[in-house]
């Protein structure tokens, strides 16, 4: 690990001033410390924001759920308002990492975590995320776990967060604070596809930090849930995951929210699936028809073509669980 300076802050204003001087924000440190140990990242300065007052979970006057950026994953998963309004968030969190990590890692840090692509974490391998212009070893290498959606000729690494898949399905937004004030950005716009700049992963401006995540209210009654398919039952990243939320009234689907994980360079909103569901009555046949649209636009690589069918099957499975017609 390379030398670095360390500054502890207690207010957002202090943190922003330190961030403007080039410091990297750190809270739970469950990702950044690993990357520093492996010399993948070499920040010269760290700014500890763990004492900032960003640990509240509350329901707004509009019925939206607002989760502070420094709420621990375990605390968010256990919170009554989260479990009641959006079980899909609780399930995504509880299927993430390990209990020990969930007790340390924060909501903001989970969204900001970097890819688990083995080539990114191997400093001897070509990786445009780590070293722009060096190439992408995954394109011609072993790419079983990589993306089939949203990739480019520069990067095909998947986004690792389970939580972000649930938040993408629910059309959440992130609240940001920075030198120019506060702003809110839809999560779908905040997490960036690689394109020609795979090293730029979030739409953050210099010195900005996440202060909260906001999830809009779903109409009642609604049901939701998260399915994670992986090589082993625990402490493993998703090959494919699916977040589903449905509002059914008078026997008809009025609102559908669906997103996939493990398949895209960012959590992937399955809009074509959603459009096919709305206005129809739940049925096994409808789930099958909708799922056929899940992998539209996919571009499988040499070793991950199985993800196309796996994604479709996972969509069918989770629609049947949430929709109640198994």
Describe the structure using short key phrases.
326 residues; alpha+beta; Enolase-like, domain 1; 4-stranded antiparallel beta sheet
Task: Outline the structure in words.
By secondary structure, the chain is of the alpha+beta class. The protein has a domain at 222-323: CO dehydrogenase flavoprotein, C-terminal domain (Enolase-like, domain 1), CATH 3.30.390.50. It is 30% helix and 21% strand. The strands form 3 sheets. It has a 5-stranded antiparallel sheet with strand order 4-5-8-6-7. The chain has a 4-stranded antiparallel sheet with strand order 9-10-11-12. A hairpin with a 2-residue loop joins strand 10 (240-249) and strand 11. The longest helix has 18 residues, at 306-323.
Portion of residues in beta strands equals 15-25%
Question: Uncertain regions: pLDDT < 50 for 5+ in a row?
Answer: none
The CATH superfamily of the domain at 222-323 turns out to be CO dehydrogenase flavoprotein, C-terminal domain
The oligomeric state is: single chain
Based on helices, strands and strand pairing, what is the structural class? alpha+beta
Choose one word for the global shape. Answer: globular
Distance between the termini: 51 Å
Q: Name the CATH architecture of the domain at 222-323.
A: 2-Layer Sandwich
State the name of the first-level CATH class of the domain at 222-323: Alpha Beta
What's the alpha carbon Rg, rounded to whole Å?
Answer: 19 Å
Number of strands: 12
Q: What is the percent of helical residues?
A: 25-40%
Number of helices: 14
Q: What is the average of the pLDDT values? A: 97
Strand order of the largest sheet: 4-5-8-6-7
Main pleated sheet: 5 strands, antiparallel
Keywords: Oxidoreductase
Domain FAD-binding PCMH-type: 1-220
Pfam family, one: FAD_binding_5
GO molecular function: FAD binding; oxidoreductase activity
């Amino acid at each position: 690990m390379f030398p670095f300076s360390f500054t502890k802050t207690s207010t957002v204003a202090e943190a922003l001033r330190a961030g403007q001087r080039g410091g990297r924000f750190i809270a739970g440190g469950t990702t950044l410390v690993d990357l520093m140990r492996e010399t993948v990242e070499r920040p010269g300065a760290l700014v500890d924001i763990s004492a900032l007052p960003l640990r509240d979970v509350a329901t707004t006057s509009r019925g939206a759920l607002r989760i502070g950026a420094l709420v621990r994953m375990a605390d968010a998963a256990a919170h009554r308002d989260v479990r009641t309004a959006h079980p899909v968030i609780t399930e995504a969190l509880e299927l993430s990492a390990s209990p020990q990590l969930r007790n340390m890692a924060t909501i903001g840090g989970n969204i900001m975590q970097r890819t688990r692509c083995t080539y990114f974490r191997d400093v001897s391998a070509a990786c445009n995320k780590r070293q722009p212009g060096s190439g992408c070893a995954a394109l011609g290498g072993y790419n079983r776990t990589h993306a089939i959606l949203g990739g480019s000729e520069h990067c095909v690494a998947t986004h690792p967060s389970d939580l972000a898949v649930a938040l993408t399905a629910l059309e959440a937004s992130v609240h940001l604070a920075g030198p120019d004030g506060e702003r809110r950005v839809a999560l779908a716009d905040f997490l960036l596809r690689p394109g020609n700049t795979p090293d730029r992963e979030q739409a953050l401006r210099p010195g900005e930090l996440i202060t909260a995540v906001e999830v809009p209210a779903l109409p009642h009654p609604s049901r939701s849930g998260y399915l994670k398919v992986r090589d082993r039952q625990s402490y493993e990243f998703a090959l494919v995951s699916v977040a589903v939320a449905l509002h059914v009234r008078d026997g008809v689907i009025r609102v559908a929210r669906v997103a996939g994980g493990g398949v895209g360079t960012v959590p992937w909103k399955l809009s074509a699936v959603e459009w096919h569901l709305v206005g129809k009555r739940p049925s096994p046949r409808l789930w099958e028809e909708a799922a056929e649209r899940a992998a539209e636009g996919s571009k499988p690589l040499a070793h991950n073509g199985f993800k196309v069918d796996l994604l479709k099957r996972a969509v069918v499975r989770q629609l049947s669980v949430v929709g109640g017609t198994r």
